[in-house]
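To: structure desk
From: M.T.
Subject: fold request, one chain
Message: Could you run this one when you get a chance? Sequence is below, nothing fancy, just the single chain.
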Amino acid sequence: MQYIIGSWYRKDELAKRSCVFHTSGAIATMFSGYLMAAVYRLDGRGGLAGWKWLFIMDGVISLPVAFAGYYFIPDIPENTRAPYLNKEVSFIDEVDCILLIGGWQERAYGQERMELEGRKPRQPYTKAKFKRILSSWHIYLLSLLYITFNNGNSSAAPVFAQYLKESKDPKYSVSEINVYPTGTYAVQVVVTLIYAWTSDSLLDGRRWPPIVFGGLVNILTYASLAVWDIPEGWRWTCYYLIGFGGGLSGICMAWAHEICTEDHEERAIVVASMNELAYVFQAWLPLIVWQQIEAPEYQKGFITVSCLAFLMIVTAFVIRSLQIRQSA
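Reply: Done. Structure tokens follow.
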């Protein structure tokens, strides 16, 4: 999806669109907390346990989304066959030329926008192209940036919910355990949108300041949780402030699109590598640092993500320096 977004939007629009897309993930996680709290009340209905009802609800929600994705995802301007961009136009008069952008006109308009942005169209893959992509700093540093972002948080473990579950005084209900942590994702949604609008406008397209700021908040919150013996109010604050570091995905992807704007194939490979390598690391790292037997303190995990946040900040500064040199 990020590759497609980068194929339609210009620099002053890119962070907003990328971040709006990623806020859907945070909103979905919030909704799942409310859904679990509600479905828990169905336990025993129809002879089914509450967790079985949850799987049924997941299926009911997922099928329409799959069909909607098939219909609405437009591919890229050069090869889109989206029905809503392929309208039949029987005649075009002078007024239509001003007011109507339909069919081939919409696709041509999308291509023209990318040309104005300097984003190159598709070209054949060649050995020389692969060699150039693999010998550039783009793929390695941008992948490292996204790896440190994606793994530099506690998304691999429900740390807040586990803390609430382990609490004896006070004792929290199942509904409270499901609902209270959704506040973290509410913070993430708001902060993600703030990052997007400020990066595109006030910061004049600069992507590194939100990344550095989010990383600093991560270090503060996770280092505090690693200490563990902290005031209870500050602990709850830290669990909610975690959302500040979770809103950087769209910013990282927007930065990658801009850095690789002159080579369509490099842009596609770099964005794919960022995403895939981040989840390759997420497949094994939680098994080491987010072990369930250490819940809810997770000292190893909190220290690890604090270090990854620091590495993300350093990587962002290095990329910024190399980008300035590249543009000179």
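Reply (cont.): The CA atoms of residues 157 and 263 lie 37 Å apart. Let me know if you need anything else for the meeting.
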